[in-house]
Amino acid sequence: MSFQTTDSKKEEYRKYLEKSGVIDQLTRVLVGLYEEPEKPSNAIDFIKRYLGTPSDIDTETLRAEYEALKERNAQLEREVEELRQELENIRPSD
């Protein structure tokens, strides 16, 4: 019984990969690597480039920028809320 469950889960996952286009994209990447006249020394980097993933990104800089922007966003949200409260106090009650 466990065998059928495992097989059905595998089949369900395979269908998911096929439906979402993962299998097609991986096939294209592998065919591209196969057809490459000079095989790259690092196949993983080739695959990343083929899929459009830049390899020269400084993640620490991006992380720091993200944290700064997140803090700035929180600050702006606080300012908006303060201004809303101020506007509520200024408006005459109906």
UniProtKB/TrEMBL annotation:
Its main location: nucleus. It comes from the Eukaryota. Residues 59-93 form a coiled coil. One of its GO terms (cellular component) is nucleus. The keyword Coiled coil applies. One of its GO terms (molecular function) is transcription coactivator activity. The keyword Repeat does not apply. Keywords: Coiled coil, Nucleus. It is found in: Nucleus. Belongs to the AMY1 family. This is c-Myc-binding protein.
